[in-house]
Target: AraC family transcriptional regulator
Amino acid sequence: MENVVIQHNILYALGHQKTQSSEHYFPEHALGIMLSGESYYFSNDGTFVMREGTICLMRKNELFKKLKKAGPNGEPPSLICIFLDQKSLLQYAAENDVPKQSGYKGHAMIDLTGNVFLKGFFDSLLPYVDHPSKLTAKLAELKTREAIELLLQSGDVYRKLLFDFQEPHKMDLETYMNHNFKYNIPLSSFAKLAGRSLSTFKRDFTKIFETSPEKWLQQKRLEQAHYLISKRSMRPSEVYLEVGFENLSHFSFAFKKTFGLTPTELIEQNRSEIAN
Model:
């Protein structure tokens, strides 16, 4: 199991040598460095790979799937990340007369590898991995301000990203859900990212799809799984996470209940049909 230590707004994560897959949604901007191993981030914007030494800034409210792997010499994946929360950014903006920025339209993940000042910043956080109690609230606040300052020195694009305080706008729900159904996040997160309260999200959803979000999500994910197995020859162990299920046994049970056969039986049926 992954070992995660969170002290204030700073996170240290150490995985194991087996490949690990997970899904994430961060409501705040995240700045991190890969200490060892590899992480693959898959989003609607494409794929971003973090290897040892990679420094990355991730925009808030981004949906992505993450695949962690051991490094080339078997070292487990580990990283340090600091979350740049809106409260800290609003306070910084007020104290430094930073005007509110218009909607940021750039990449969701920005590669900052090679920035020696950010590398030094993360080096200064390493001692707290073994001594988390030494990272007081005051020190965490100072580190957050340091990270903001270093990003602002790195280019104007970071000002636009960090100080864009606009909430997600109300968007076309049918298009949004058809693009993002594979992400296994709470309905409350779907609602926020679609620019709605949870109650409005459920009401709009039922009006558009004529069913509940829970039923639609399961059916949509199962249909996608059926396609990937029957047409793309993917294995059930690859598919269930890809389409948004949490575990293989639940996926197999739901699949058989919907299609009348398990994913494995579907594969065998397809092979038999090809052979004949």
About this structure: The two ends are 45 Å apart (CA to CA). The longest strand covers residues 29-36. The longest helix spans residues 213-230.
